[in-house]
Amino acid sequence: MKALQNILLGLLGASFAQIGVFAQDDDSSAEEGDLTVEQGNSTYFNPIFPGFHPDPSCIFVPEWDDTFFCAASSFNAFPGIPIHASKDLKNWRLIAHVLNRPEQLPRLAETNRSTSGIWAPTLRYQDDTFWLFTTLVDDEKAPEDASRWDNIFFKAEDPFDELSWTDAIHFEFEGYDPSPFWDEDGKVYVTAAHAWRVSVDLDFAPEKEEEEAGITAFLTQNHHLDLGVVYLPSGSETASFPGPRGGDESAVEEGDLAPHLRFRAMSYLPVPDTLVVPLPGAWAGETLRLEISAKNNTHYSFSAGPASARSQVQTIIDVSNEHLSWGFNGLALQKMG
């Protein structure tokens, strides 16, 4: 069985379709004793599950007669979230569907796009119970719409009995791909993916040229992206403000010191030129909100606006994440100044 555990580790660490065999029956009323074990060495071929079984989540459960269980995404299909079981990672049987009754998740009927529905389930076994965490996604809604994501979990004491799977239990989180972790002290944590947005509110009244305060996306002292409010002579702008400016700016003469927004970057890779835009006159004396968000998988957005008026926040620049993280958009954030 240790050898089977090692195979499972390889299975989870690689593309799921790279090892395995298909030998399954589509009878979801199977019982635990129906699972077969192939004795001795043999030759087998990919894939272990033919057809459409994306985002597999697999566990090995010694308490259930050394059985492997796998769950997969089902999107808008019903019955949904198929569970397969195996004793040897080669012979697999479809034993149940977690989603097998419409009343378990009525909202599944409202998501009407091929990429909507159940995304990337995570299957776990803890406290004599099988747990399945997943997200019901309405892919027609915008990523920033909180109602796009419905994070849920199901539980069952007997995975072979479809009726033992509970109705969906909902929990609040704006994102997807939830995965639970049980700590030794009994606390349960859930990690997940989400389009993050962080901001700082800034009360800053500079008095000297080049005084600056702001926010930075930081990897090391040689890799960082900075957006700040800086006191510079009027006329230092390298670009116009990207939105309406408002306010009375006629009193500011060429060369007078005035607040500006400045974006600067440092990296071993080529970075955008320094960007300086005038601070809108309508924002004078206001608490400012500086914000960094994940625009998508490859870019950050740097934005600014009055803290009291979210609708006036303007994107100053979009920047590739390659300058900090070489292809992913997680980072450390801190205030500067």
Automatic annotation (TrEMBL):
The keyword Membrane does not apply. GO terms for molecular function: hydrolase activity, hydrolyzing O-glycosyl compounds. Gene3D superfamilies: Glycosyl hydrolase domain, family 43. It comes from the Eukaryota. Coiled coil: none annotated. Keywords: Glycosidase, Hydrolase, Signal. Residues 1-23 form the signal peptide. One of its GO terms (biological process) is carbohydrate metabolic process. This is Glycoside hydrolase family 43 protein. It comes from Parascedosporium putredinis. The lineage of its organism: Eukaryota, Fungi, Dikarya, Ascomycota, Pezizomycotina.
